[in-house]
């Protein structure tokens, strides 16, 4: 097992010229050789664990987000189970919302639909993303969620398959949205259902609104209109 891990570390360091710790320059060939020696020779257990962690993280990110780590690269499924990404919405303004059917904020579906109807022809796409991370408030199947949304709120904006927005099973999209690396202003765990991320036409998050801020509130509308005005 150790030999397999050492081989993975070696290949990672050969293929990925990462920055030298504490330095802004990229690894030279000599630096890489020294790192490979450290990884496959007799390093301390702590160094070895850190290097192996880098391999696992890089592999996970590449598998889920593609080589660019773009918002549009994350693999998802529609509420009907079809594989998809957010790539069809490139050039659009996106409002991404983790939704739930049995939450005190569930009536926000009505405002989401109203805002979508008003601005969809101007380039806004609202994406509902069901998640059952909070108080078992989205316990149904995708089919049940779709039926509920259609019958009670006549939802016409895109809905995705149920995912997890936090914890060990967090979907990569939400790992990206809540990461300080993406934007420290919007970083941090999702606290509850109906957290909203506004994404500009360039695919970059531009605002985060907490659950109590309704989709039709002045601050959300102002942010949406500002992004729609950018071509």
From TrEMBL:
GO-annotated biological processes: cellular response to oxidative stress
Stretches assigned to the Thioredoxin domain: 63-229
Organism: Terriglobus roseus
UniProt cross-references to InterPro entries, sorted A to Z: Glutathione_peroxidase, GPX_AS, Thioredoxin-like_sf, Thioredoxin_domain
Family per record: Belongs to the glutathione peroxidase family.
Signal peptide stretch: none
Family matches, as SUPFAM superfamilies: Thioredoxin-like (SSF52833)
Protein name (record): Glutathione peroxidase
PANTHER family: GLUTATHIONE PEROXIDASE
GO MF annotation terms: peroxidase activity
Keywords noted in UniProt: Oxidoreductase, Peroxidase
CDD domains to which the protein is assigned, alphabetical: GSH_Peroxidase
The UniProt record lists the keyword Oxidoreductase: yes
PROSITE patterns: GLUTATHIONE_PEROXID_1 (PS00460), GLUTATHIONE_PEROXID_3 (PS51355), THIOREDOXIN_2 (PS51352)
A Pfam family annotated for this UniProt entry: GSHPx
